[in-house]
Amino acid sequence: MKFLDLAKVYIRSGAGGNGCISFRREKFIEYGGPDGGNGGRGGDVIAEAVEGLNTLIDFRYQQHFFAQNGQGGMGRLSTGRDGDDIILRVPVGTEILEDDEETVIADLTEVGQRVVLAKGGNGGFGNAHFKTSTNQAPRRANPGQDCVERTIWLRLKLLADVGLLGLPNAGKSTFLAATSNARPKVADYPFTTLHPNLGVVGVDGVEFVVADIPGLIEGASEGRGLGDLFLGHVERCAVLLHLIDATANEVAEDYQTIVNEIEAYGEGLADKPRVTVLNKVDALDEELREMQREFLEEVTGGLVMFMSGASGEGVTEVLRALRAQIDEDRLRRKKEEGGDEEDAPWHP
């Protein structure tokens, strides 16, 4: 299945049905009076987050979504039929934006979450609605309300606990393939990964989701390379796993390149917790490993871990470090939502 994370969509709600002007006409009933019914209501355009989708590719082939118009009222006080709603089924994590691609209409982050994007028009009143004691034969009815037309953008931001960052060929896809059932393309050349991949990783009986995006290069925040197109997919992550190729000549410069790019991108990425790891250490001896770690720790000012996605060395320790950061993030969110208070004792 092809990956698509941005789509332009044209939507239109249903117009309301017109009210009816009608009078009762039956044998032996001289003054039947008005019996025009009201028009039906137009259908809404609704977006709903559903399970089983992780791309917006369906919206490449269908961009127009029109709800049904309401039916007009009829005689004998018959109300017109309401128009059917139309539902846009989108992946969880989809942002819905105005035509300017900046104003957020809704952010669907939970399965079953819904938002009305265009409300259908109300049906018009038939002439029976306007009957009064002084006007018992009204000859007026309301037209139905017009439809609502708008252009919106759908932008998908994958929901994951961990986001993988690094230069091209840093071993991100190898790590994901080694720790999950995901099968990203792995090869010994840059930009093997062309679109994000998700994998479910487990350690000590606990599972979490890892997102792998194409590697970043210098100038990515200005549009160079591919990674800047997909940085939005790690905005929601609790922690970032920054992989540095231990076999590179300048590991400190490689680290700083990624940090500079996520700082330039903004959106709070630079403030997220990061686990920094020297990858591919199976290709180095002990002396060279320690030398590379010293160079890197001078720049990071924190702990740098060793790992080899190919041989499995250090992978469990890295996963445990990620899990600890995820647990801290969930605890923080719980406190922000007021869930940190101890349950008060129950009294009858």
TrEMBL record:
- The organism named in the record is Pseudooceanicola marinus
Q: Which Gene3D superfamilies match?
A: GTP1/OBG domain (2.70.210.12), P-loop containing nucleotide triphosphate hydrolases (3.40.50.300)
Q: Which positions bind Mg(2+)?
A: 173, 193
Query: What is this protein called in UniProt?
Result: GTPase Obg
Function (record text): An essential GTPase which binds GTP, GDP and possibly (p)ppGpp with moderate affinity, with high nucleotide exchange rates and a fairly low GTP hydrolysis rate. Plays a role in control of the cell cycle, stress response, ribosome biogenesis and in those bacteria that undergo differentiation, in morphogenesis control.
Could you tell me which NCBIfam families the record lists for this protein? Answer: Obg_CgtA, PRK12297.1, PRK12299.1, small_GTP
Which HAMAP family does the protein's record reference? GTPase_Obg
- UniProt keyword annotations, A-Z: Cytoplasm, GTP-binding, Hydrolase, Magnesium, Metal-binding, Nucleotide-binding
Q: What is its EC number?
A: 3.6.5.-
Q: Which GO terms describe its biological process?
A: ribosome biogenesis
State where the protein is found. Answer: Cytoplasm
